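Record 1 of the preview.
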Amino acid sequence: MAFFRCGGGTDTSDATATAENILSGKTAYVNDEKVTGTMTDNGAKTASLNCGGSYTIPKGYHNGNGKVTGNSLSSQTTATAAAENILTGKTAYVNGSKVTGTMTDNGAKTASLNCGGSYTIPKGYHNGNGKVTGNSLSSQTTATAAAENILTGKTAYVNGSKVTGTMTDNGAKTASLNCGGSYTIPKGYHNGSGVIRANSASSQNLIKATIDGAQVTSDLKLLSINNIDIKVSNLPDYCSKPVVFDNSIHFFYGYKHYKYNSNTDEWTCISQNLQYSVTSDNYKIFVYKSQIHMIYSDKLYKLVSEQWVEISTLPQSTYYGSAFEFNGEIHILCNGKHYKYNGSAWSQVSILPFSASNTKAIAYNNAIYLMDSDMYKLTGSTWTKVATLPYNIATNVEYGQFTVYDGGICYFSGGTTRDETKYWYKYTETGGWKKMSDVSQYGGGSSNVISPVTFNGELHMFNSQLKVHGIILRVYRKV
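->
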């Protein structure tokens, strides 16, 4: 059928657009029909892309001003590696720049180590196949000892194997020999403190001493106290203040310092020029921190190169008091007070239960004991009575002397006259006080007739009142 256009209009029968082909809001005639467009008007679209990213262009109309921009390489390669962090010959981008690596390629490193050795791992890349190997123990413990060459109970490695020793530990062996006798030294280890002494014989029983530059000898006598053997020898001088130091007995008298050699029974005068003359009980001689110290009046000195060097002023005078080392500190007890010195300062420890100037005190079984008519023990800062002293001690305690020997406190009484009976008493915590013997025959002065010290497990008693003719009594237990 033919159509006729009024007024001679345009023929639109050949148009093909649909609504989605016409911009939204716009109209057009297609096949003589008016069509309103639905095409989206996107205007000017923009977007940014990272490397490898994509942007889907929206369907519809774009006005030509839109733009899709690729982000900068530096913004997409933010990193921290430097050339030395990248394997040599390899490249990488860091913050937009191409970097060629300089890190050494070590490949598979190998090394071997002895015990205690070390291997410095080279800087750079390792491929995981390298290995550091410890050398065999046998190659590092090449030795020749057998079990009998190693002290019993001790272990050692020999040629890679752990060996437990079987060598006997003899410790300190002691023996005595008669003239012409012999002693077979036991097989095994000896600690160097063992002593073999020759017994006295008529041709070999002289004790030597040096008196005023001349050598004097006297016969060695063997006495007995309650079945305990006594050896008697002469002293080179009036003996005052005996003390054990440096594996020997030392004593001081006047300006002189003497030392005893127990192997030869000889006394040596070490010095004749000390600056203080030691003659009375106002001098206290003792060992503190492995040095000989002296208290005189209210001063503390130590012996340095045979000179008394002052190191401290005492908080009080110790005339006729007691002074000794206990638990690494110096303790002084006198005139009712008790002080201690820690190496730099004095401090008061306690008030004594009595105020006598001639205070007798001693350290025994990790405690301090104090003697008067009664015996006291210090606990903290408190004195507790633990025993009553026997009559012969209590009435003469100021004239006697104390020492620790054979697990107990030993007391040797003095007296106010030469003819008074002198006694040896011993105290133990379990047995109390026990009279051991009458030792009057070894006395010989008006006071402090016997000054005892313990040395090498033996009790040494000094008659301190007889110049030149003084005696030292060395007490041995019978075997």
